[in-house]
Design brief:
By secondary structure, the chain is an alpha/beta fold. The protein is built from nine helices and 15 strands. Strands 4-3-2-1-5-6-7-12 form an eight-stranded mixed β-sheet, sandwiched between helices. The chain has a three-stranded mixed β-sheet with strand order 13-10-15. A two-stranded parallel sheet has the order 8-11. 44% of the residues are buried.
Amino acid sequence: MKILITGVAGLMGSRMADWILENTPHKVVGIDNLSGGYRSNINKGVKFYHFDLAINKIVSGTTSSTKEGEVNLNLIFKKEKPDLVYHFAAYAAECLSPFIRTFNYSNNIVATANVVNECINSKVRRLVFTSSMAVYGENEPPFDESFIPQPKDCYGVAKYACEQDIIIAGEQHGLDWCIIRPHNVYGRKQNIWDKYRNVLGIWMYKKLNKEPLLIYGDGQQQRAFSYIDDCLKPLWRAGNKPWCSKEIINLGGTQEVSINNACDALIKIFGGSQMVEHCEPRYEVKNAWSTFDKSVELLKYEDNTTLSKGLEDMWEWVLQQPERKRKQWTDFEVEEGLYAYWRAE
């Protein structure tokens, strides 16, 4: 079997590729535009295409004979003939998304539409799409799969639109799918150099650079964090078990924690005595965590890793990483209401 993974240079995509290559005999083809992930994350066993799903073009050749813009997604699918597709590619910055609307919708909705088209045309066995807990928005936690989504930000809107498009593709064109709604996934190979997303990674970057850890607002926001290693085998089941066909399933941590307490847990890993600053609150959902019963039943999900243990493992990996340039947006589409700590330095 051949498996295609989009977003293969990011946290979930790269680690999923690792798991498949280490635990199964199957081949993996990977796609990523390297805007939020790193080539060094990609397993050497992956056949990699440096490809931008939003514009449907190769970014740079996988061989010296492949020219920029020469290949589109249809040609990749025809050449590779994937049986199973994991669509992880996205720019998952919830609170930033209202300031980069066009970019957000292009890199989530348009990119997903291109993937869905080729999954239909190539008659793939199943598409596994990672949506987001952001679709639940203003619902009362814990969020259950039966809830009607009420996204509060543009990223949640984009992910919900993608879900609906995939469901339509299943009804009209016979595409088999499984939609996973992960939340706050963290671990080795996460991008800690992006100041707009992944709060645990942002704090680790701050520590490396001897800067105070920022907490937006009062820090009483409640979240549940999901260690990547606990999610990989369940994701494999989502793509391969018949009872996961056309199911929407939450995936992630079973224990909610305040942002303040998560910060305290990380400071203990750092060895204590770390400066913390509270700053301007963001427009976001105050409390957000999900039910996990369905993931236990269908995916055999087990929350085996405590937050402290997961943070310790991730921090150990971070300390081994090279210094990288931090992402800084300079071309916001909307500046009205932009938070002071995101303005150009």
